[in-house]
Design a protein that fits this description.
Low-confidence stretches: 286-291
Shape: elongated
Oligomer: single chain
Strand content: 5-15%
Order of helices and strands: EHHEEHHEEHHEHH
Distance between the termini: 119 Å
Radius of gyration: 30 Å
């Protein structure tokens, strides 16, 4: 068996991976909070940003930053570009699908569990697809029990993330939820990694693909730039409370405008101010007309 080192750069990679997972999760929660306050295309745009933040930065970037610290003695490790990009797309899509399923059921228990299973299963597939993207001189084996455990962690973490996306509001609550989500995602990653063992076999299975420094580092940098841009978009956009206040104000203005329109219509239908009727007594007589007339 080849000696596996998950922390080739010491504590640096797990700490940076955890921070990026928390940042991506927090941005995703901020985006979904705004999505709950709007409708139509505006809601769709915020949900897409939320899925990209949680799936892309919170999950995928965390995974591959962790992989930068992964090494196996006596063999080089390279990565298949197509499989790696597919795992990125999968992470974003499954988070978006999970949000859609849970959101359509108004955050019910059935909706959360269904969305959590879809998202968690997709995240687990993303993880092992990312592992399958590795190419090294040898064969890779997995401990089935630890694989199952990693999938369970992924489903639980995804369900918790969806619940937070549909319910959490406020800076403190969002920060707390993001920290917990970062722990869950990191826990799933390193549990899955601990299930792995490598049997190095000389030149068998000659490594092909690109080195991590040639591919993963630029890709992670690009997604990190996307995260910074998303952060600016969130910072410059109205908060969920401000969006709700604006919507309430628009509704009040609409009711006021409608009331004025109805009032003008009533005045016009009674002949306007020039044909205003004089007040009459209970018998229909004009108060200002002499009784003999």
């Amino acid at each position: 068996m080849g000696h596996i080192d998950h922390f080739a750069y010491g504590i640096l990679t797990p700490v940076v991976a955890y921070i990026m997972s928390c940042v991506g999760s927090a941005l995703g929660l901020l985006c979904t909070t705004r999505a709950r306050a709007v409708s139509g295309w505006a809601r769709a745009r915020w949900l897409v940003l939320g899925a990209a933040s949680i799936g892309g930065t919170g999950i995928w970037v965390m995974h591959f930053i962790g992989m930068l610290g992964f090494s196996v003695q006596d063999t080089a490790i390279r990565y298949d570009v197509a499989k790696t990009l597919t795992s990125l797309a999968l992470a974003i899509v499954v988070v978006g699908v999970g949000m859609s399923v849970a959101g359509r059921r108004k955050g019910s228990a059935v909706g959360l569990v269904t969305g959590g299973v879809i998202t968690g299963g997709g995240v687990a597939i993303m993880h092992y697809m990312g592992m399958a993207a590795m190419s090294l001189r040898g064969t890779v084996e997995y401990d089935p029990l630890k694989v199952v455990l990693s999938v369970v962690i992924a489903v639980v973490a995804a369900t918790a993330a969806l619940w937070a996306a549909l319910n959490v509001t406020g800076f403190a609550a969002t920060t707390g939820a993001a920290l917990i989500m970062g722990i869950a995602v990191s826990g799933m990653h390193y549990t899955g990694m601990s299930a792995m063992s490598v049997r190095v076999q000389g030149s068998h299975g000659l490594a092909h693909g690109v080195e991590a420094s040639q591919f993963l580092a630029p890709l992670i940098t690009g997604i990190s730039l996307f995260t910074v841009i998303t952060l600016f978009i969130v910072a410059l956009s109205p908060s969920a409370d401000e969006i709700k206040e604006d919507a309430d104000l628009d509704a009040r203005l609409a009711r006021l405008t409608s009331g004025q329109h109805i009032a003008r219509h009533v005045v016009a239908s009674t002949g306007g101010s020039g044909s205003r009727r004089r007040p009459a007594d209970g018998n229909g007589r004009d108060y200002f007309r002499p009784s003999g007339q």
